[in-house]
Structure prediction request, 280 residues.
Amino acid sequence: MDQYCVMGNPVAHSQSPWIHARFAELTGQRLHYGRRLVAADGFADAVRAFAAEGGKGCNVTVPFKFEAQALARRASERALLAQAANTLSFASDGIIADNTDGIGLVRDIEVNAGLALRGRQVLLIGAGGAAAGVLGPLILCRPAAITVANRTLSKAQALVMRHTALASQQQVALQTSALEPIAGSFDLVINGTASSLSGAGSPVSASTLRHDTLVYDMMYGPAAQDFLAWAQAHGAQARDGLGMLVEQAAEAFCLWRGVRPPSAQVLGELRQHLAQRERG
Prediction:
C-alpha cells in the first residue's frame, strides 16, 4: 500500500490523515496516510528517511515550508514564487515540491464561502510560509489591492517584491504595512501567522474591519477560536481554515494520484465529525 504522511511540529492536531483516508475511500485509491512529528533541526533527514522507506510523498506544515521548497530538486512555478512548499512528491530523480495552500484558500473563500475576490480589498497578515504560499493565487483572483502586514516589515517587503511582477500583470495594487497602524479597512482579512497557536487573539486592530468583512484564520478548531471570536465581537463574518485544509489536501491528492476527490462532501463530513467529537 502506498505511503504518505504529513510532517510538522506540532502535528498531532492535524486532520490530514482523516481527510486523505476519506479521499482514498471515495475514489477507490489504496494508500495509507500518517503523521510524523519532526524535530526542529531534523526535517531534511525525516524527508529522506521517509522516501527511503518507500514513501510516495508528504505534506508539510509549520515550521518547515521554506525548508521543504529548498530541499527539492524540482519545484512548481507556484512553489518557486512562494519559496515555500507544502506538498512533496518522491520521484526516481529526486524530490518535487509544490504548494497547494493558495489554491486551497481561494477555493474555500470563493466556492465554499461564496466571496468573489475580484475587485476586493484584502489584508494578508503574516509573511511566513503560510502567507507566502497563498499570495500568488490571491493575486491571480484580481482583487483591487492586497496589503501584506507583518511584525517584521522587511519580511513583508521581501515577499511583496517577489510578487511585484505578477501583481502588475494582474493589475493588483500590492503594498506592505507594519501590524500597527494599518491604514484603511478591508473586505477580507486573512490571518496567515502562527499567533492562533499561542492563543494570542488578533494581531491587528478592529479598525481593519467593516461590517461585512470576512475574517479568515488559516488555522482551524480551538487554535482559531480566539481570533474568530474577536472578529465576531466586532460584527465581522468569521471562518476558520478547515475548508482550506480540505481543499489544499484535494489538490495534493490529485497531484499524487491523478484523481480529484469530492472535497465539498469531505469538508461537510469533517465538520460533522469534529462537532460530534467535541460533544463527546
In short: The chain is about 45% helix and 20% strand.
